[in-house]
Amino acid sequence: MGLKIEYIDGQTALSEEEMEGLKIPSITTRGELDEFEQLNIEKAIEWTFRLKLKPEQLFTEKFVRDLHKKMYNDVWKWAGNFRNSEKNIGIKSYRIGMELKQLLDDALFWFQNNTYSKEEIAIRFKHRIVSIHCFPNGNGRHSRLIADLIMSKLYDDNYFSWGKGNLIKANETRENYIKALREADNQNYQPLIDFAKS
Length: 198
Hints:
single chain; about 55% helix; mainly alpha; globular
């Protein structure tokens, strides 16, 4: 039968090859997929609780990949690997490594020089890594967890609340999130910062 996914606004479709990377053949619906992914993500979050991260460790390609792998490795064979397909959002796949390196260097500079507030550093990083779209799937959840880790590990502050809602389902909270992301596309980060803190 295979997995059938209906996508909502802001979600990226998987290629046939990427779909073949599903490790659990019994998953056939979006709901089942979301459930298995969420269990995997919860394990990854538990793993992050034990980490002591310096900026020089967090802002590395290795950490970006390792975190994605921890979040999705129980479900997807390609977890932690950069995509090699083109998507409706994100840069050309061959540019991922270069663009990510630039972002990581920029973020380390922002942190070391207090270029922006801690919230703005976390949100700028989150927004830019999603716009690069490193992985076939899970980029939004991955970017939000990295923003949370920037807050908690580098600034000893609380995780963001991200509107206190489910951002995977089509609902008002997700609509507000997508609106805030579109504002950030125009270099207006305040709505996304406000949403993250709401």
